[in-house]
Known about the structure:
With 264 residues, this protein is of the alpha/beta class. Helix content is 39%, strand content 13%. It has one domain: Rossmann fold (3-Layer(aba) Sandwich), CATH 3.40.50.1820. The protein has helices at 20-28, 45-50, 52-55, 60-72, 85-95, 118-128, 142-148, 155-165, 172-178, 213-222, 248-261, and strands at 5-9, 32-34, 79-83, 101-105, 137-138, 169-170, 200-205, 230-235. The protein has a 6-stranded parallel beta sheet with strand order 2-1-3-4-7-8, sandwiched between helices.
Amino acid sequence: MSANPVLFIHGLWLHARSWDAWIDLFDAAGYDAAAPGWPGDPDTVEKARELPEAIADHGIDDVVQHYAEIIHALPTKPILIGHSFGGMIAQRLLGEDLAAAAVAIDAAQIKGVLPLPLSALRATLPVFRNPANRHRAVSLTAEQFRFAFGNAIPAEESDALFKRWAIPAPGKPLFEAAAANFNPHSSAEVDTRNSGRGPLLLVMGGRDHTVPEAVTRATLKQYRHSEATTDILEFEDRAHSLTIDHGWRDVADASLSWLRTRGF
Length: 264
């Protein structure tokens, strides 16, 4: 019997290699784990910083299609684990019956989610301050990264994570998500009514500035018309860096435990 495939999906401003420790843990637990990057993502953090134009102008549909093609090449439906916009992508793919289960960690808001706390606006201001950024890749400064990701960890750790994993991010997904509730054909729309999909775990950090817990709780409500399993788990003292900081193992172990209880 082959191992369950697991695909990790990163969000904005983090390279796919930021999942390396998770891959090792899940492989050791008997899964077949991988973390393919977004379309245009270079293989390394260094190349991504040198070639921001390779990442620029990719929208949500581009990313969904990219991972759908990867999934179609697998022997069985994978488990998806996504962070931030990767969590939104995972939900879309799960809703389209392309995944066996999904864990969405501090997932970006999907269509229908109305709360937009001020901290989320501040975290994404580096993109929204210039409309031309819709077609560009935008980098964060170490200070901006600390507010958006590392506000619940020591400044020294946040700066170290920034130096290790931060890359430019396409602005297009943020503009698409911001306009989702005004667009009848939004790429941020998820089939939240699908009762035949696999189970979903929504994970939130109670101190997250970029995706505050109000957004995740509002996301949970979007699934109220589905009979499929949708669970929620909060890490009260964690922020947006929870998948890469010193406490990543707590989140990873909780994700593993949830998958085991769901039969995976």
